Amino acid sequence: MIHLPKAWIRERKNELYYKKAKAENYRSRSTYKLVQANEKYGFIKLHDVVVDLGAAPGGWIQAARKMTGRHGFVLGVDLKEIEPFPQDYIRTIIGDLTDPNIVEQIVSFLPHKADTVISDAAPNITGVWEVDHARQIDLATKALDITLQILRLGGNFFVKLFQGDLMDEFVQTVKDNFVEVKFVKPAASRAKSSEMYLLALGLKN
């Protein structure tokens, strides 16, 4: 029996999702992280209104569009311009998660309060773990602040985190506001990465 090096296996897996995304016309390999998580937990459903924070280049928007269908609505928000989609039930806006007016801007596009908010937003990576972790928690906190203002009661939240010592406080805040909270590590996430996702189900009063 041949034992292949783990690093080689990981690289093959990463290459697999990259090629798969190209073949299936997805804008990023990270699309499959959302697909795999939703296949398991079903937090995005047909006809849902979904807001994607940190949405460029639009891979998660593409996945969410298929999950919600033509009677759903997906709004992507990012600092960078996102290449437009032809469907009228998908909108994208240039927006800064730290802008005090961002909630008002988002709400102006929504047919009603969001059913689910998703965020794959990540900072520019410095390579200094403490800095990157702190910046990621800050982005996740901004995403949570926005979510608590635009999400309907009973709605869901799915957000990227980097593992580290600042995570516990953030997770506790999420638990204070949602009925059920769990960690998710999709197969499409790089195994050696500190990246994971937090899924929060059922926004409380």
Describe this structure in words.
This protein has 205 residues and is α/β, with parallel strands linked by helices. It contains six helices and seven strands. β4, α5 and β5 (151-162) form a beta-alpha-beta unit. The mean pLDDT is 89.
Average residue pLDDT = 89
Number of extended strands: 7
The helix count comes to 6
Which descriptor suits the 3D outline? globular
Strand content: 15-25%
What distance separates the N and C termini?
56 Å
Unreliable segments (pLDDT under 50, ≥5 consecutive)? none
Q: How large, in whole angstroms, is the Cα Rg?
A: 17 Å
* Range of helix content: 25-40%
Report the order of strands and helices. HHEHEEHEHEHEE
Strand order, largest beta sheet: 3-2-1-4-5-7-6
The biggest beta sheet reads: 7 strands, mixed
State the secondary-structure class: alpha/beta
Itemize the secondary structure elements and their pairings.
Elements lengths: L5 H18 L7 H11 L7 E5 L5 H10 L4 E6 L11 E5 L7 H6 L6 E6 L9 H22 E12 L4 H11 E7 L10 E9 L2
Parallel strand pairs: 1-2, 1-4, 2-3, 4-5
Antiparallel strand pairs: 5-7, 6-7
